[in-house]
């Protein structure tokens, strides 16, 4: 695709991707488009980016659109990424929420291949076991993802040794996983049963998801324009119960919707309370 990746064709593809899923590609990310789409284009006998973008406009090319979006939005993730969000959940948020006595609802937005929602569920289980008889109400975790292929990985809940080495301790591997065929491990049922996986484009309405006590939306908003980011933050505020909390990535903030959230310093880490 290299020689054929002309600037006007790249701009047209950038426009398609932003309209389709909100992701804004940088001006010099042609290499990323090439590395992620070369095989897909070869498999579909598409000679260049111009032809690809033209085909993506056709109503009959739904499968191709899904495949392109899937390839461009799939990102690596880690177990218990950055550690402190899960410590905050276990040591601060769950103790507060269990006092209300109602079911606790947590949303993992853009959950990729499932490491975040499974890490959340493991954190809930660790809190429950350390405080027997305290967390009596059910905890529901809703995990959403745009990529259909990533949702299939999430639902299978099976991971290889390389994936498991990224942030997962040997103790948690032994406690929360069971070996399956080959060198793979599957998340145990007690962790999986709390999680409901479903497709969602963050540009679409959140209303059908219901209300949440905690929303994890980490390392996602950095890919959106400031206008779309502000819109997502406003709609996430509407999806939070009064006083609910939003947890973002370390390099993200709510400046585009700062009037809706109060910053909470947790040392380490920052979370945002809906006001």
In short:
It contains 11 helices and 10 strands. With 275 residues, the protein is an alpha/beta fold.
Overview of this protein structure:
- There is one protein chain.
- This protein has 11 helices and 10 strands.
- Helices cover 44% and strands 18% of the residues.
- Strands 6-2-1-7-8-10-9 form a 7-stranded mixed sheet. Strands 3-5-4 form a 3-stranded antiparallel sheet.
- Helix 1 runs parallel beside helix 3 and helix 2 runs antiparallel to helix 4.
- It is α/β, with parallel strands linked by helices and 275 residues long.
Give me the secondary-structure topology.
Elements (H helix, E strand, L loop, with lengths): L6 H15 L8 H14 L5 H8 L5 H12 L10 H17 L3 E5 L6 H16 L8 E7 L2 H9 L1 E2 L1 H4 L5 H7 E3 L5 E3 L1 H4 L2 E5 L12 E6 L8 H14 E9 L12 E5 L4 E5 L1
Parallel strand pairs: 1-2, 1-7, 2-6, 7-8
Antiparallel strand pairs: 3-5, 4-5, 8-10, 9-10
Helix pairs in contact: 1-3, 2-4, 5-6
